[in-house]
TrEMBL record:
InterPro entries: Chaperone_Skp (IPR005632), Skp_dom_sf (IPR024930). It comes from the Bacteria. Belongs to the Skp family. This is Periplasmic chaperone for outer membrane proteins Skp. The lineage of its organism: Bacteria, Pseudomonadati, Bacteroidota, Bacteroidia, Marinilabiliales. GO terms for biological process: protein stabilization.
Length: 170
């Protein structure tokens, strides 16, 4: 009997503690859109990406042309010349793939540049959210833009503008 009363009391205490906690949410997409340095960084990354893509497309077109020329001339070439041409095309394709990884790979130039430009902004946002959570005694703050499915959100609990104010933006 004492165990049953203790169990029921524990459940009621836990449920009451859970209901008393404060929750809030932010929209990190909205916050980032309202930070001019993020928009500038995003434009810079887009330009760099377009530059890399253009360079890779030019290299790919060159490889395609080399391959077409090889096919057209292959009947006139000796076996030794065919092998040399194939080796040149294969080495050019390897160079293309290496350059592609260098620019767009998981640790590539574009990723490194993004880390340098965007990560400090994201760190500032995280610090501001953490400060708001501590000041407001929030148990959890969700990010509605990060793929968390929130079926309904009351704008009264949206802390996005508060984060922007904490960062010094209107």
């Amino acid at each position: 009997m004492k165990k049953l009363i203790f169990t029921i009391a524990s459940i009621l205490l836990f449920t009451g503690a859970t209901l008393a906690q404060k929750y809030g949410y932010i929209d990190s997409g909205y916050i980032l859109e309202n930070i001019p340095s993020f928009r500038a960084a995003q434009e810079q990354l887009d330009q760099l990406s377009a530059q890399y893509q253009k360079e890779l497309e030019g290299m790919h077109a060159e490889i395609e042309q080399m391959y077409k020329d090889f096919q057209a001339e292959s009947v006139l070439l000796s076996e030794d010349m065919k092998r040399k041409r194939e080796d040149v095309i294969i080495s050019k394709e390897k160079e293309y793939k290496q350059l592609q990884r260098k620019y767009f790979g998981p640790e590539g130039d574009l990723y490194q540049k993004r880390q340098g430009l965007v990560k400090p902004i994201q760190d500032d946002i995280f610090a501001a959210v953490q400060e708001i959570a501590n000041e407001g005694s929030y148990a959890v703050i969700f990010d509605k833009a990060a793929g968390t499915t929130l079926f309904y959100t009351n704008p009264r609990y949206d802390l996005s503008d508060e984060v922007l104010q904490k960062l010094g933006y209107k």
